[in-house]
């Protein structure tokens, strides 16, 4: 029987997962014969937290036209359209921001952001660099060929607002800031949505008005899109009106530009525009539209740029269809995106002119015409000091708490003095909004006064369960702030959501050794995933002295998470500093510890770490270069997917057998050839990889298998390398 033809992997979404808690266990719901060709690439809590379900993405490599296998749990919903919201990553514990990515015209909610090598930066890269953000996709049916939909831009935007409102309510994130990312039509949707949310002030819409930290636009057609070919496609179809809206200088686009500037000009925007033309659409021989026509600039630079003062602009040597398929490396813009996002989170002054407004907030008529710092304080004073006494739970007193919180978030020295004078005249015990936590983060000089005035130490943040002591662990720079909270009765073992204690926050986010020392009594606290502060320090912290402080205080160096991960596993995968791994090993970390996937730290580092130093440290300490995980992959095979070719060389230098086969009979050389990794192919051949035995079957160089995205020139170079190596090997054999 002839072997079936392999196709490239397809990505599916699984929702309503209730029976598993790990990626490994999810695969067990499928028949064994499919599992080797399935990879669970993400597993995250679903949008609706009340259901206590999870959402996953799975990569599946079909044989021929093979359908996706049916899971044994029939309640699981499987689809590949990705309509609505899809959570790709949800942090444990405190979530600072939601990042929402909206695809473009006729785009796929997942595929629009995925490279030809199956890397999807929002899922595979961003969680490591922005670990405090929940990352979601939003998909919608914007097909224009064979579509009966009469939806126009306003319809897409209205539908988004309804789903956005429901998503935030169901995931308890109504007060969480948002960062929007859009591609093409998705950029116009973002503008329409924000204009809509920012143009009204009534109780029905107030609860969904988000604080927007920043926006990233990929190929945004602010002044129009090249639609000549698309007009021919949709002539006489229901999609004709939508395409007409996208033409240059259309009334719809002019309205969007004017409205967006009025409500949003003060927020940071990253504009990424294309610098290469895109192949146009034309009718092919099979009577189907194909993108192989003359190249055209789909979005000209002048159309993609807003020309605002707070706009950062990056031109990419990509066409319109590939501009959002971001990859790492100096040829792309991933590092620029990360820096922009990190700056958005660092600054407390990034809030848009459309802050979240609670449905119980003061009516606009009760506020001054401007709600800046200078005008909020008189309103607070007028309602708290000059009015008759009110019941403890009165509406006015709760509103004072909210206004006070807003002032604290914006305030510094002068406002702090005003607030001190205010709180000295009355109690804060019943004010809503947890001003104490905000003071810890934004205005620590006010903490003592708030405590004396009766601020509630046990008040918890919405959606995070964090108290002031947790916020201190994350943000405090002076240990005196933490000590004030302890003196008032704060508990070093207080638990937030996901069972984080304050030291978890300090080890994860705060590079302050003094704060870690103050919280050190909880050194071996476990989160609900079994993670200790040492796990977080090994993963996120760049200061070896903080890791050492935890170790010196008695942290369990070989603590296993629920999935069998030790701190050394975390350091090997995420932390690029060899000294972090070395400190753990010196403290007694088991260098060949196995997680539930039977992977050692070296196996994980070979695949994910870009640091040759990390690899050397693990090998020197006794990391087994021939170890294999439950799937039969060795460090050498896994290193092929690493972007740093020197990782492979380090393993070979350490004695990794170049012809070792995985359980399917393939060698590292096979995978290097298939992925088009020319440098790695050369290195493997130099270290003795046999070009005649790259798999269980003999394969002639002319029949080498390449993934479809490997360019023809690279294929020819690799074939040449294999031809020469084969001749040398055969010559040695004859001698």
From TrEMBL:
<keyword id="KW-0040">ANK repeat</keyword>
<feature type="repeat" description="ANK">
    <location>
        <begin position="597"/>
        <end position="630"/>
    </location>
</feature>
<dbReference type="InterPro" id="IPR051165">
    <property type="entry name" value="Multifunctional_ANK_Repeat"/>
</dbReference>
<feature type="repeat" description="ANK">
    <location>
        <begin position="563"/>
        <end position="596"/>
    </location>
</feature>
<feature type="repeat" description="ANK">
    <location>
        <begin position="664"/>
        <end position="696"/>
    </location>
</feature>
<dbReference type="InterPro" id="IPR036770">
    <property type="entry name" value="Ankyrin_rpt-contain_sf"/>
</dbReference>
<keyword id="KW-0677">Repeat</keyword>
<feature type="repeat" description="ANK">
    <location>
        <begin position="529"/>
        <end position="562"/>
    </location>
</feature>
<dbReference type="Pfam" id="PF12796">
    <property type="entry name" value="Ank_2"/>
</dbReference>
<dbReference type="InterPro" id="IPR029058">
    <property type="entry name" value="AB_hydrolase_fold"/>
</dbReference>
<protein>
    <recommendedName>
        <fullName>DUF676 domain-containing protein</fullName>
    </recommendedName>
</protein>
<feature type="repeat" description="ANK">
    <location>
        <begin position="631"/>
        <end position="663"/>
    </location>
</feature>
<feature type="repeat" description="ANK">
    <location>
        <begin position="464"/>
        <end position="497"/>
    </location>
</feature>
<dbReference type="InterPro" id="IPR002110">
    <property type="entry name" value="Ankyrin_rpt"/>
</dbReference>
